[in-house]
Specification:
Length: 291
């Protein structure tokens, strides 16, 4: 079974009832844990992604936005490193969104990510995104107080209103030629503990440790509820979610690579054809170089 076919199992492309517990973080679609075999499959997908981006860059019609969301240690950086290894760096924009700055807080919640959207012909990757505003901020509603919103607008309806804004925003992007693909890297609480312990036990990973991550881990159930609601309310055909099992990193990367490759194939960008005049000039140049 090809990676693109496997990825379709985890695609959510319509709003409605969605239960995160129906997706097993350790799922491997029945495939044996043959890391070498599937590393080859991912390598093949990344090579084809590189060719896809080359055609996109030449055509300058489409752009692709890949959104990676997940708990700490869910593998977002590893996905970027492995899945996009075959893409020309000149055609790839990777953006990471941390705590918003004072300037960003002075604007609407979509402003800072809008500034970083990929140009036509490029692939953009958001390592976290505007979804933090309905995930982290929802788990920590006290953060709303620092966003300068008029008090009458901060009501119990604010999350539903933000979902509506996001859906409309993503439809606008799709109608403007940006393919939006969203991935929730679904990791178990046990796997997160394993990954975080590695940071404490391996010297070359000490720098990744943040005591604040352990505090957020205590809010696991609230985060899962926030993700579940966000996925249920913002999954559309224009911007589908993929709930990617992430306890096995080889499988995680294969699903993400397969989903992007499949979507890119459907875009089918082409190198622009030359006019008769340009073809004649090209032939003249070839002739001159051979003389």
């Amino acid at each position: 079974m090809k990676s693109a076919d496997i990825a379709k199992r985890f695609r959510i492309d319509s709003p409605g009832k969605f239960r995160l517990k129906d997706f097993d973080p350790a799922d491997t679609a029945g495939l044996a844990n043959d890391k070498d075999a599937f590393a080859k499959e991912v390598a093949d997908d990344t090579k084809k992604l590189g060719k896809l981006q080359d055609r996109m860059y030449a055509e300058r019609r489409w752009s692709v936005l890949v959104i990676l969301q997940g708990m700490d240690a869910s593998g977002k950086d590893g996905v970027v490193q492995h899945v996009f290894a075959g893409v020309n760096p000149q055609g790839l924009d990777v953006r990471s969104f941390k705590q918003p700055s004072s300037e960003e807080l002075a604007h609407d919640f979509l402003w800072r990510t809008t500034l970083k959207l990929p140009e036509r012909g490029r692939i953009g990757v958001f390592n976290r995104s505007y979804y933090e505003e309905v995930i982290v901020v929802r788990v920590h509603p006290e953060y709303l107080g620092g966003q300068g919103l008029p008090k009458p607008l901060v009501t119990d309806s604010i999350w539903q209103e933000r979902f509506e804004d996001i859906v409309a925003y993503e439809k606008h992007l799709a109608r403007s030629g940006t393919l939006v693909l969203k991935f929730f890297l679904h990791m178990s609480r046990e796997e997160q503990a394993k990954q975080q312990l590695q940071r404490l036990e391996e010297p070359d990973k000490y720098w990744k440790f943040n005591a604040g991550d352990l505090k957020e881990r205590m809010l696991w159930d609230k985060y899962m509820a926030a993700y579940e609601d966000a996925i249920a309310r913002t999954s559309t055909k224009e911007a589908p979610w993929y709930v990617v099992p992430s306890d096995n990193r080889w499988f995680q990367r294969m699903v993400v690579a397969g989903a992007i490759r499949d979507a890119g194939d459907r875009l089918n960008p082409q190198y622009p054809p030359l006019s008769a005049k340009d073809m004649a000039a090209l032939e003249e140049m070839k002739k001159a170089l051979k003389d």
